[in-house]
Design brief:
single chain, mainly alpha, about 180 residues, binds fe (ii) ion
Length: about 180
């Protein structure tokens, strides 16, 4: 549990920090207003989806809990679909995803989480996987709502982000339902 709380702290700190760190454009427009570029947003969307697909694949390999497996299959399918549409859109728009500190932090945190998952089995695995999915979806929804949607400059990119939110909210609800029964 301590580890989880620490992870939330790291994620929230990172997300909050990015808002400021990227605000230092050439003109130094000041304030904490989000200055993520569409290229950064594209990289965050790609990275965030890949991370959840990757965790789902581990769950599908390791878990024998039917609720966990059903959830993981949904994550693998839905996030692959979001990922495919996002890649298609940014390709059409000519935006090349550009990693930033948030993407690096997410990747690092995800690698640590996966390393831990690989050492677990049975109920301990199921709990670690689903607990993290709850926290991860909460964090991702926060970032999409408060940073990516307001920050997107291209209207199609903004609309796509708005359109994926209900699915992410549904994933969060689903993860909490599974969490209560694991
Ligand atoms: Fe999800």
């Amino acid at each position: 549990m301590k580890t989880l709380l620490k992870q939330i702290g790291i994620l929230m700190f990172t997300f909050g920090f990015i808002g400021c760190a990227t605000a230092s454009g050439p003109a130094g427009t000041g304030t904490g207003e989000n200055k993520l570029t569409d290229a950064n947003i594209a990289a965050i969307v790609v990275g965030a989806n890949q991370i959840d697909i990757s965790a789902a694949k581990i769950a599908l390999q390791k878990s024998s809990n039917s609720r966990v497996r059903e959830f993981a299959q949904r994550m693998a399918t839905d996030h692959q679909s979001v990922l495919d549409s996002a890649v298609q859109l940014v390709t059409r728009l000519g935006v090349t995803p550009k990693n930033n500190d948030l993407v690096h932090a997410l990747s690092k945190q995800s690698a640590e989480h996966e390393t831990k998952l690989k050492t677990l089995s049975g109920r301990a695995f199921d709990k670690a996987y689903i607990d993290h999915e709850v926290v991860y979806h909460e964090a991702v929804i926060e970032v999409v709502k408060n940073q990516l949607i307001p920050g997107a400059q291209n209207q199609e990119l903004k609309d796509t982000l708005i359109s994926v939110l209900p699915a992410f909210e549904a994933h969060l609800a689903h993860s909490k339902m599974v969490q209560a029964k694991v």
